[in-house]
Amino acid sequence: MLSQILSRMPGHPWYDRIHYFDTIDSTNTYAKKLATEGAAAGTVIIAGRQTAGRGRLGRSFSSPENMGIYLSVILRPNCKPTDIMHLTCATGVAALEAIARPDVGIKWTNDLVMGKRKLGGILTELSVDPATGNVAWVVVGIGINCCQKVTDFPADIADMAGSLSMISGRETDRSRVAAAMMEALYAMSCTLFSGKFAMLRQYRRDCVTVGQDVSILRGDSVLHAHALNVDEEGALVVRYSDGTTEAVNS
Length: 250
Description:
The chain is α+β, with helices and mostly antiparallel strands. 25% of the residues lie in helices and 28% in strands. Helix 3 crosses helix 5 (174-190) and helix 3 (87-99) crosses helix 6 (196-206). The two termini are 34 Å apart.
């Protein structure tokens, strides 16, 4: 698999920083370990299978063997954490560019969807340098379902999960998706700040949550609202039934 990926990206700046594993617990967990040990920006971890794939809020991410792309990359932006609140949105836009299907959208803030089926997810994690208050490193993780049929998903998610092969009706080349993802992530990392506003315009266009009724979960409380927009930091602007508005951060 690694040789197939590399054959699609000669000369790529991250070409010699890719670590491939047939099986790993979590690409994000391993990338965080390498980041704390000083691994360079652009270090990429790819796995054919994850035994403990993770999503937001500690949720698991189903990562069966040779069915998807499970990829994490280390970035080292020299900024305050508040300066990259839009990073997950930027990663979502990059993922859509790599997938190159106009019928796939983003469910705020980090899910790739087609209709009611989730095709993939994004998990961003960072560490702050206590001496400077700047970001020491960021790990951006992406999991994309590529080759599954409905029957390949666990029963509890079979009615809400999907794959690229399911929506295209043909076999998906995982090496092509992985290479395209790294191309898009590299371009995103180069324009994370200079291209922020253009990226957010694209995110708003592709965000299926805007215009929908949503539920805001905070601890044991649930608030119902209507999603109006995504602001300049990637927060979801919502309006409650009493007419008040709020920018909700993930």
